[in-house]
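Quick illustration, no need to memorize.
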Amino acid sequence: MEIEGNAALIVVDVQKGFESAYWGRRDNPEAEGNMAALIDRWQETGRPVVFVRHDSRQAGSPLAPGTEGNAFKDFVEERRGAGAGPEVLVTKTVNSAFYGEPDLDAWLKGAGIEQLVVVGIQTNMCNETTARMGGNLGYDVLFALDAMHTFDLAGPFGWSGTAEELTRATAVSLHGGRFARVVTTEDVLKGTAA
């Protein structure tokens, strides 16, 4: 797999608020290490990085602006501004990074970017929504499944899904539905090797 020289890494909602017990049990304890490895590679190679932050409007949310939970996790914050390539911060109040400020689609198109690699939190929420919209907008979207995580979730009719089940459903829907190509961190790193 070849990763374009100007492919954008979209780092979604890697915020301290997701460390709260509010969310419940999560999957993929290796997610943060994989995210860090991808951010490092993007910054080393001068590729563009988009940091996305969720500014929740929901009362009591651990991601509300002005709370400690709204801040990026330390490993992300210490990397912001450290790369050789372009970087932008997109803030949003909904699931998709394409409905934030500044306008992500306009920023990407203005830079001639056609390929995206999505990582971050949560797999089946903001990551999936951003990937679906990216696919609908015509981008070549790579979804680095092991560089993200999610949480167990209760649904309708007494149904619930474990984080692992939700991750698998997201991967099948995105890949099988051709919204994105589901890949691993290793796949992406190999594709960016000099």
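The longest strand covers residues 140-149.
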